[in-house]
Amino acid sequence: MTPAAPSPLLQIRDLQVHFDTPAGLLRAVGGVSFDLDAGETLGLVGESGCGKTVTALSILRLLPATHADMTGEIRFAGEDLQTLSEPRLREIRGNRIAMVFQEPMTALNPVFTIGEQVAEALRLHRGLSHQDAWQAAGQALTRVGLPEAQRRLKQYPHELSGGLRQRALIAMALACEPEILIADEPTTALDVTIQAQILALLKNLKEEMGLAVLFITHNLGIVAQTTERVAVMYAGAIMEQAATKELYKNPAHPYTRSLLAAVPRLDFHQPPGEKLAAIRGQVPGLEAPPTGCLFMDRCPEAREQCQEPPPWVEVEPGHQVRCWNYA
Fold first, then answer.
1. Taking the C-alpha atoms of 289, 291, 293 and 297 in order, what is their torsion angle to the nearest 10 degrees?
2. Whole-angstrom Cα distance, residue 160 to residue 82?
3. How far apart (Å, rounded) are the C-alpha atoms in residues 215 and 213?
4. Helix or strand (DSSP H, E) at 74
5. Residue 146, number of CB atoms within 10 A of its CB
6. DSSP letter for each residue of 2-35
7. Best CA proximity match to 15, nearest among 214, 229, 185
8. Is the pTM of this model over 0.85?
């Protein structure tokens, strides 16, 4: 008898997020579902404003409860995070699930030293004394390759460069050795050299610690380098999901194909006068998304059937797409 496959470490089912604003109810995320297995890296990719960060913040319930209405199911190691009490959630947040934000200067507190901020998580979640937490904080900074770690412990965020601040933020996230790391555009504000160093660091730490990583980005080149699977998001919904190599080799959704076609390539010789590929039109507004396919108004393959919501279809094992072309 074949043993049952282990359950995913993180399961999200039909996540929907609406914001109550003066302009009315805005739908930021509409029915997102995906799994994250232990030890794997899943890329969540899409244009700015498509709902990637809102999805990540929803996992840790970091959205303002007074203005955000969340429905759906978010299960971590069998527990539904949506129904947990705040004290129980605090035991998980920053301890078993950690997050690296895209702008370290706003994520780090400017009035506390780097050492104080890293040590705080260790005191809170591991119950370490001040001295032991400070020592462990130094080890965390050393692990992420921050030079002169003992001196950096006493420095404030503004005294570090952008790359060093990002390393300090990663050290703070990984200090308690979480099972899941959510990396939200962790290299956006960095130059390409530092970006490559941070990506290599995250890859090495993932392998060393056995981390599961949800990597959020709009950069398709980074996705190709760092992930095993990819979920392509558009206007608050996942349009396609597949193994990374499969998605780049055989993109199924017209939106995915359009995204890949719009990426400039160094080995591509552009004919004189010919423009780079672009996706026509605009992303639909949050206040009144289309009732059918969300990509319909911009899709070169749209037809009358697209007026209805498309089904979620498996075109190959492990490769799903939300499109009438495959229904």
1. -60
2. 37
3. 6
4. strand 68-76
5. 24
6. PPPPPPPSEEEEEEEEEEEETTEEEEEEEEEEEE
7. 214
8. yes
